[in-house]
Amino acid sequence: MKNIYFIITITAIFILMTSLPVSAGEWRGEGTPLYTIAQGRIHGGVFVEGGHGYTMENPYVEYFDLPKDIEYARLYVPMWNYNEDDWLEVSINDESLGKRSEPDYVGAWGVANYAFTVTDKVSPGMNRVSVTYHNTNGAPYSIVLVAAYEDQALPQTQFWITEGNHVLADSTKTDIGEIDFNGDIPTGAYDATLWTMIIAGTKGENDKLYFNSHLLGTDVGSAKSGAYYDLDMWDVTEFLNTANNTVVFERGDEAYIHPMLAVLAVCCEDGQKEDYLKINSQAQSTGRSVPIAVIAVFVVSVIFFVYRVVGKR
Amino acid sequence: MKRLLSILLLILLSSNLAAAGLDTSMIIPVKNTDIYESNRLVAGVTWHERAEVVLRNTGSDAMHDIVVAVDVPLNMDIKIPAQDIKDISVDGTRVTARIAEIEPGEDVSFLFSVKPPESIQSKKTVSFTISITYEDGTGSHVTSSISSVEIVPPPSWVTYGTLLVSMLILSIVLTVAWKFDVLEWFTTIDLITISLLAALIGVVFRWFWQTFNDILGPFGGLLFTIPTVVLMIVALQLVRKPGTATLLFTVVELVAMVVWGTNITIWMGWYMSEGVLVDALVILFRRNYGDTRNAAMVYGAARSAFSYALFYLLFAPAVWKVYYAPWYVWTEVGIAAIGGLIGGSIGYNIAKKMRGAMI
């Protein structure tokens, strides 16, 4: 009888453990594939910069030297080990954006990405962005700023900003992350630049990055820009299609990588079409879950040990 | 006596004349110094490490036209990140920053990043020379200081050594297992028991730890250490064969590889060696399979302290190229040992009950 109580107790602990309204840090699934949050056409350019890897500094500070006339700006703070009691507070030039807890995108074991629209918060010239946070065993991987700016002296630039947090992992057999930059490229496009951000890449574990099926690089996620952090810029002019361009992140040998950002900017001959900015609604991060393997192992173990107890009798 | 008074007078006068005073320091790498070791760079890292030079005017007069030159050793590649101070440049191995003014009591700092060398033969201490010229009410001044930084060899040899040791341990274990028909000693029930306990460690409790470790803050590791030791003692008591712990931790790693995608070639040695240690202790304690509370606690503490020490002192530098601050390492090892003691004691009670119910 005592043994039955013992098994019931263990089962109850497990049920309690899996049903607590707790901490995310738990398995958060495959994250959010990258999608277009904003696109447009502007006489001006696109600014993409950021740094500087996982250092556990608190506050974590990064500077951005911005041009004038920012039409749209989006700030990203990728973060390791998000749990529900955690919070972070972003300040731009000492103006707080307020404390936030819930990240915009979270996947795997709490690899999170916080996104902020900061068009009205940034200024021309040097901007100091500071992230103060509470996260017992985690910290930011980087601070990255993407901005589309107007400059009538410059030719027209067509751009797509895609964001998310796609968990490409061996454990889930998710190997490919594909991003579509839908829309026609105006004739006379002469300069195309792609920026990509990958979190948690490891040097020597060969991933691949393709643009319209052309290989841009291998081992792109190799922590070049800082610990666990890669922000790369690619000249993709020669591979540009006239419409619907595509970027593919291939996990390859990496145990896991998290593509979080891809921005495409194409310079066109001047004055072809009207400038515009289209901001899409933000995708909702998928919910957390207990991995099937955890449930399966627990259930099989309980059945086996019950069998052994019953078998003895 | 006259000479002494003259010297004192000279010191007093000169200190009055030097109206601005300058404190200079350099922080490298710019990381959380509570956790990471300061003034130590790892050769072979893929990224540039940030350095911050901090200047403080400790005097009572403003200083101006400050020029700071930092000579970077070993021809390390240098980058200048965006920052408040804009007049900063690189010429060869020299970083030069020009600062208009520093008020009394004010701190001014600037950043640069260096890429540690790909490899060096052995650990060496190098010097970053910081030369500063500035002006204040009393005229021009020149000062310099040296910041010593230790460059440790790229852990590649440690990585390869680790792989080699992993393979060596694996080969020895497999040879011994084959030579002595070790697997024949284990019944099917034994093997299933070990596999399921290993799966509980590698899947269920690893998930549990990953999920809830924040609750206990710096003691979060206990959420994995204690259940692991509990299940290890259960395995020892139920199976009662030499090699049980080694088999258990080998299967933990295999399961972790399948379920979580853990890199088996690098981590296998780490997992197996803790099993080998426990099995050696079992032999040393005359085949005591955690049958006494003291033995169970010793096994738990030894396994946990050993695995944490191995992780922080060997695997973290080798795999992640990170050197943790010594106090942090030994605190973690100490917490792990305590977790092992607790797990051993709990494991002894649970294993005893399970043995009574099953065998």
What would you say this structure looks like, in words?
The complex is a heterodimer of chains A (313) and B (359). In chain A, helix 1 (2-19) packs antiparallel against helix 2 (292-312). In chain A, a hairpin with a 2-residue loop joins strand 14 (208-211) and strand 15. Chain A has helices at residues 2-19, 292-312; strands spanning 31-52, 60-66, 70-79, 87-92, 95-100, 105-107, 111-117, 125-134, 142-150, 156-166, 168-169, 176-184, 191-199, 208-211, 214-218, 229-235, 243-250, 256-267, 276-279. By secondary structure, chain A is mostly beta strands. Chain A has two helices and 19 strands. Residues 6-25 of chain A have low confidence and may be disordered. Chain B is an alpha+beta fold and 359 residues long. Chain B has two domains: 21-152, Immunoglobulin-like, CATH 2.60.40.740; 156-358, no CATH class. Chain B is built from nine helices and ten strands. Chain B has helices at 2-17, 156-179, 182-185, 188-212, 222-239, 244-260, 264-284, 293-320, 326-358; strands at 22-27, 40-42, 49-57, 63-71, 77-79, 88-91, 94-102, 107-115, 124-136, 139-152. In chain B, strand 6 and strand 7 form a beta hairpin. In chain B, helix 5 packs parallel to helix 9 and helix 6 (244-260) packs antiparallel against helix 7 (264-284). The longest helix of chain B is centred in the last third of the chain and has 33 residues, at 326-358. Residues 9-18 of chain B have low confidence and may be disordered. Classes of the chains: A mainly beta (313), B alpha+beta (359).
